[in-house]
Specification:
alpha/beta; FAD/NAD(P)-binding domain; 6-stranded mixed β-sheet; 3-stranded antiparallel β-sheet; 31% helix; elongated
């Protein structure tokens, strides 16, 4: 699947044209889907008792989500269920151009994460929710299960330990199968395979389609998408933050075509000096999340970039 930008000479309009294909997905403003309740409870407090809502001024957003990958897209979709002014800032020329376009597309069952960890809890819960979310967004979801293959007795113990860990995490239906059952499930498996961990809740989903649909649904609910907006600095101001933008990676790739939707839901490409204000910021910048956090790190606590990998 190509990026939406590749389907139109107008980069901003082209992205919106692709995103608007999700118009059949349910508008969720005013409702409280499970995902939205979880996100808002963790980050904002109870929206029903919060002073968030209509902004004090038309210039300030309630929430700016930095990153239009699958995480940022799903967060923005959840937040768009409430009376909040939400914007999504993406430094690329389209959504899903970072890690969300280069992953395995696997919906992991949840047996890898260490038991008791937050990752384990969210992995299992996310796996349980994914089929319903994909149905709401009109995205294909295939529950084909997953196999972890063992090629000897040493591997068998590893497979068994993964089963125990998965069961402790709450993954349903896990079992270790022998060579005969493995061949029944996967006839083309290597002859050297002797056992496997079978996880029936494992699945796959297209990460591009999921991200495009999530961002599109958020936009249908009023969220604004700003492409080619590379955050260059964040300043604390009374009541929130001032976010400074510069031309993003789309501009560097020669895709900085000006243009915007008539309703303004997709902004024209950011230019150096672009500024917006927001009450809250959600950092969903993927592998660049540390760089975004760096803007609010006191200079006395900053480390050289080369040293970040060691701590």
């Amino acid at each position: 699947m190509g990026a939406a930008a590749g389907r139109s000479g107008n980069r901003c309009g082209g992205a919106n044209a692709m995103l608007r294909r999700t118009a059949s997905a349910p508008a969720i403003r005013g409702q409280r889907p499970a995902a939205a309740a979880v996100v808002c409870a963790c980050m904002l407090g109870d929206p029903g008792n919060s002073d968030l809502g209509e902004g004090d001024t038309k210039q300030m957003y309630d929430i700016a989500v930095i990153g239009a990958g699958v995480v940022g897209g799903m967060i923005a979709r959840a937040l768009s269920a409430y009376r909040l002014r939400v914007c999504i800032l993406e430094k690329g020329h389209d959504v899903a151009v970072g890690a969300s376009c280069a992953n395995s597309a696997i919906v992991h069952a949840g047996f890898d994460a260490h038991e008791g960890s937050l990752k384990a809890k969210l992995n299992v819960r996310g796996s349980e929710l994914m089929a319903g979310v994909c149905e709401e967004l009109g995205v294909k979801y295939k529950n084909n299960g997953s196999l972890v293959i063992g090629f000897g007795e040493e591997d068998r113990e590893t497979v068994e330990s993964l089963r125990r860990r998965g069961e402790a995490n709450g993954v349903k239906g896990l079992k270790v199968i022998d060579q005969a059952e493995l061949r029944r499930l996967e006839p083309n498996i290597s002859e050297n395979a002797v056992c496997a961990l079978w996880a029936p809740t494992g699945a796959i989903v297209c990460p591009y389609e999921l991200t495009i649909a999530a961002v599109g649904n958020a936009m249908d609910n009023g969220a604004e998408l700003k492409l080619d907006f590379r955050v260059s600095d964040i300043e604390k101001i009374p009541g929130g933050y001032r976010v400074y933008g510069a031309e993003g990676t789309g501009a560097a790739a020669g895709q900085n075509a000006a243009g915007a939707d008539a309703d303004g839901t997709v902004a024209a490409c950011a230019e150096n000096g672009a500024v917006l204000e927001t009450r809250y910021i959600i950092n969903a910048a993927g592998v660049h999340a540390d760089e975004i956090a760096w803007f609010r790190t006191p200079s006395s606590a900053r480390r050289p970039k080369w040293a970040r990998a060691f701590w």
